[in-house]
TrEMBL record:
Residues 90-357 form the AB hydrolase-1 domain. GO terms for molecular function: hydrolase activity. Gene3D superfamilies: alpha/beta hydrolase. The keyword Hydrolase applies. This is Alpha/beta hydrolase. InterPro entries: AB_hydrolase_1, AB_hydrolase_fold. Keywords: Hydrolase.
Length: 383
């Protein structure tokens, strides 16, 4: 009979957890299997791993990679006006500024260098976030200068931007009809991969390996977040690999604001293309092409801006680049000017605008103008 207030027979009071566990054992997966039960269960569980991984990969592609691919497919290079010429002698010249690895837009750098307006009207090049095509950029420069009725061009490249500037200069020098490249300014530019210091070179080569075998690595913001935070590990990792929580959160916040959520940040694909431009090693060939007159156009001036102490530049071996430039465009009848600075580091005009503007004003502008006058006089005498 049932006890008052309880719907079960009195025998139910003897029930304990052992009966529940026995019932679970009798109904769980593989309960009726005899031989090789454990091996069969292990094999079954292992088959679930690819399914879970495939689901995670689908989420990674759908939420992270594909939307970024779609956004990058709509980007294109552009040039932005910064300042008009500050000197009557520069009214027929346009200066185009190009920035280095990991930066998309040269606007801030060009604004930090008002002295460039002594050479002509100043424009900032904004790269295509899906990659770099120097022919497209050179054609854009021709279109802009045609509209402004400008025939002479000066290109200024900072760090890796100098490699891009040299390739654009070659296109303009050899293939652009009436456009004349007056000068190419190289700020701590690595003329080939050997000019990149080993630590930075290793980081770049590691990046290319990741880009080569990780699906979606060129677009993934998740991978970018991980890589950028790791690059700042010196901020939050203490002795014996202790992570300082507050500093780690600040590093993550910095990366999210400046690299992930910022639409003006360079994409993984652009950084890959920028580093490949150095790896390809075409700068030396471009220098050789610029060292020869083409279609009646004179050779452009090549200006190399570097720290006086080469070790003040932790990224580029400026002494190596310096020697290559002497070999290619220096000498008694060369077109090379090397400017050494005292307080600058690696291509940092935004941090050291005063010294950059001083050397441009006092050394670069007079050299470029004098070379142009000399070449014009020779051309006139030849006629």
């Amino acid at each position: 009979m049932a006890l008052p207030g309880f719907p079960f027979p009195s025998g139910a009071a003897d029930y304990d957890d052992r009966r529940r566990r026995a019932r679970l054992r009798s109904t769980r997966l593989g309960a009726g299997w005899g031989r090789w039960r454990r091996a069969r269960l292990l094999a079954l569980r292992l088959t679930l791993v690819p399914l879970v991984a495939l689901g995670a990969f689908a989420e990674y592609m759908g939420l992270d990679v594909l939307p970024e691919q779609d956004r990058l497919a709509r980007t294109e290079p552009s040039v932005l006006p910064i300042a008009g010429p500050s000197d009557l002698q520069a009214t027929g010249t346009a200066v185009f500024d190009l920035v280095g690895l990991g930066v998309l837009d040269a606007g801030d750098t060009a604004r930090a260098l008002p002295s460039l307006s002594r050479l002509g009207s100043v424009w900032a090049v904004r790269y295509d976030n899906s990659g770099i095509d120097t022919k497209v950029i050179s054609d854009l420069i021709v279109k802009v200068t045609d509209a402004a009725q400008v025939t002479d061009v000066v290109l200024a490249g900072h760090s890796m931007g100098g490699v891009i500037a040299l390739e654009i200069a070659k296109h303009l020098h050899q293939d652009s009809g009436g456009k004349r490249v007056r000068a190419v300014l190289l700020d701590c530019t690595p003329v080939d991969l050997n000019a990149v210091r080993p630590e930075s070179r290793d980081q770049g080569e590691e990046m290319l390996r990741w880009m080569g075998w990780v699906p979606g690595a060129r677009e993934s913001r998740m991978l970018r977040l991980a890589v950028e935070v790791y690059a700042r590990h010196d901020r939050f990792v203490g002795g014996r690999y202790v992570i300082r929580g507050a500093e780690f959160r600040r590093a993550v916040d910095d990366v999210l604001r400046s690299k992930i959520l910022n639409t003006d940040a360079a994409s993984n694909g652009l950084i890959e293309a920028q580093f490949k431009a150095i790896v390809a090693g075409g700068a030396v060939d471009d220098l050789r092409a610029l060292a020869k007159p083409a279609a009646g156009k004179p050779r452009p001036a090549i200006v190399f801006i570097r720290p006086h102490n080469p070790y003040d530049d932790p990224v580029v071996d400026v002494q190596y680049s310096h020697q290559v430039l002497i070999d290619q465009v220096g000498g008694v009848r060369g077109t090379l000017l090397v400017v050494t600075t005292r307080t600058t580091g690696h291509a940092n005009p935004i941090e050291r605008p005063q010294e950059y503007n001083t050397v441009i004003e006092q050394q670069v502008v007079p050299f470029v103008r004098q070379l142009w006058r000399d070449q014009s006089a020779v051309a006139s005498a030849g006629h």
